[in-house]
């Protein structure tokens, strides 16, 4: 047991937790409380710089609170905050990261800031869910309790996933098994495709796990059950795969050996009028309407370009969505499966003016690309941000425009500090997009132009 203090929350931190001052003046971070709320907290850990605690008695309640304290929603760490207030928090978070972490002057940041694009329908927007299988139930990790819990009344997942969870849980209830640890559901509300993946952490030989899995789905009629659940709701079971992730690295990266159990190892999606095949394990935006808003924001900056260089291109969704007749697109990524999918998607949409290669972004040689000018470089890096070798190459090559798409304002601010702080690039536009309602995450699209 830690000691007890009464504090008043003054702000929300970068991960959505409440921030307050202890009597000593030290900052304390408290999950699930809101600015303006006074609460009794137990200090659970403390360092020389800050402390962490949990609220056990909420004394005053914020008018922005829409769920009572303790009524947590697994997977949605800001479900207790009114949507309008959440949008203001995310917009402020992007601005504050640029100023405080990126050390970019306010007089540069404020004119570039654009209003956040809200989610048109912030409920049941996720086309990709990963569930933990516990006691025959498909659960989500509660970010506050760190426990696997039944989603209850879900606010994130597609409605079809709720129906499929119920059908699968009935199968697991009738035929208990410890063969699988997770279930991944992906799908499209536009094409009505659903792709499911069973995940096993079993360390037995792959042939043994595959054999047991085939026996299980045959004995339980799992595929038929899923087909019926899909058909009753106007969907189609596009495929069922097995992923064997026996190592901690495979589980963390969602890698390992994949085996097709039924149908195809991909589903199809439509985004900005283009058709995309998304294979099991491939990254794709989880909120399609918001992804379209994001890409439309980026497309305004590439209309007059002769060429587009798409780094960290993944399955090619950004570059192919922005590409216009007469333009040249080159995409690079380190994941061979993603590049194969990008090439497939280019063919699927008849885009012969797009080429994709397996190569790290930082290994690019701008001199050998022979890209027509003007050229815009698009970067959509993982959460860790840009490789610093790539930052140096961008500063040396100095393309006329850089479009930076980010899922982490902190690492984005670090990278922009180099690109803008050196005086090579102007910060023209910063547009936050609410891609992940009811969570602390925010997507941002930034335009930089050469001085």
Secondary structure blueprint with pairings:
Layout: E1 4-12, E2 18-21, E3 27-30, E4 38-46, E5 50-58, H1 83-101, H2 106-112, E6 128-134, E7 137-141, E8 148-149, H3 159-174, E9 182-187, E10 193-200, H4 206-220, H5 222-232, E11 236-244, H6 248-253, E12 257-263, E13 266-271, E14 274-279, H7 288-299, E15 307-311, H8 317-322, E16 328-333, H9 336-348, E17 354-358, H10 366-369, E18 375-379, H11 388-397, E19 401-406, H12 409-421, E20 425-433, E21 443-450
Parallel strand pairs: 3-5, 10-11, 15-16, 15-18, 16-17, 18-19
Antiparallel strand pairs: 1-2, 1-4, 2-3, 4-5, 6-7, 6-9, 7-8, 9-10, 11-12, 13-14, 19-21, 20-21
Helix pairs in contact: 1-12, 3-5
Which short descriptors sum up this protein?
29% helix, OB fold (Dihydrolipoamide Acetyltransferase, E2P), alpha/beta, 451 residues, 7-stranded mixed sheet, Rossmann fold
Structural class assignment: alpha/beta
The helix count comes to 12
Low-confidence stretches: none
Widest β-sheet, arrangement of strands: 8-7-6-9-10-11-12
CATH class of the largest domain: Alpha Beta
* Share of residues in helices: 25-40%
Task: Give the N-terminus to C-terminus distance in angstroms.
Answer: 56 Å
**CATH homologous superfamily classification of the largest domain:** Vaccinia Virus protein VP39
| CATH level-3 fold name of the largest domain | Rossmann fold
Using only C-alpha atoms, the radius of gyration works out to 23 Å
Major beta sheet summary: 7 strands, mixed
């Amino acid at each position: 047991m830690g000691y007890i203090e009464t504090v008043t929350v003054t702000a929300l931190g970068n991960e959505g937790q409440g921030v307050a001052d202890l009597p000593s003046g030290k900052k304390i971070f408290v999950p699930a409380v809101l600015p303006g709320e006074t609460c009794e907290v137990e200090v659970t850990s403390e360092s020389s710089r800050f402390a962490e605690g949990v609220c056990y008695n909420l004394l005053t309640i914020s008018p922005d609170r829409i769920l009572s304290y303790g009524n947590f929603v697994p997977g949605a760490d800001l479900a207790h905050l009114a949507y309008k207030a959440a949008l203001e928090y995310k917009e402020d978070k992007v601005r504050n990261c640029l100023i405080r972490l990126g050390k970019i002057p306010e007089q540069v940041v404020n004119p570039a800031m654009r209003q956040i694009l809200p989610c048109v329908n912030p409920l049941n927007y996720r086309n990709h869910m990963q569930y933990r299988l516990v006691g025959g139930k498909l659960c989500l990790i509660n970010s506050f309790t760190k426990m696997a819990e039944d989603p209850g009344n879900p606010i994130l997942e597609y409605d079809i996933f709720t129906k499929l969870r119920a059908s699968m849980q009935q199968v697991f209830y009738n035929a208990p098994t410890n063969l699988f640890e997770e279930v991944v559901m992906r799908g499209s509300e536009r094409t009505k495709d659903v792709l499911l993946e069973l995940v096993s952490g079993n360390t037995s030989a792959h042939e043994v796990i595959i054999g047991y899995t085939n026996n299980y789905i045959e004995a339980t009629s799992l595929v038929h059950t899923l087909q019926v659940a899909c058909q009753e709701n106007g969907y189609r079971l596009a495929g069922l795969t097995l992923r064997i992730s026996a190592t901690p690295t495979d589980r963390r990266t969602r890698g390992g050996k994949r085996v097709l159990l039924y149908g195809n190892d991909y589903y199809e999606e439509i985004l900005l009028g283009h058709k995309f095949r998304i294979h099991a394990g491939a990254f794709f935006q989880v909120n399609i309407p918001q992804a379209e808003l994001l890409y439309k924001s980026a497309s305004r900056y590439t209309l007059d370009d002769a060429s587009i260089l798409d780094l960290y291109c993944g399955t090619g969704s950004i570059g192919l969505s922005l590409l216009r007749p007469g333009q040249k697109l080159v995409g690079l990524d380190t994941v061979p499966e993603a590049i194969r999918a990008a090439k497939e998607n280019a063919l699927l949409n008849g885009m012969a003016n797009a080429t994709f290669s397996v190569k790290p972004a930082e290994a690019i040689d701008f001199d050998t690309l022979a890209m027509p000018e003007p050229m815009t470089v698009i970067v959509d890096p993982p959460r860790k941000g840009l490789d610093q070798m790539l930052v140096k190459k961008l500063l040396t090559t100095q393309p006329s425009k850089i479009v930076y798409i980010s899922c982490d304002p902190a690492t984005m601010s670090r990278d922009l500090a180099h690109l803008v702080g050196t005086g090579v690039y102007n910060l023209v536009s910063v547009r936050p997009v609410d891609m992940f309602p009811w969570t602390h995450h925010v997507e941002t699209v930034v335009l930089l132009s050469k001085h």
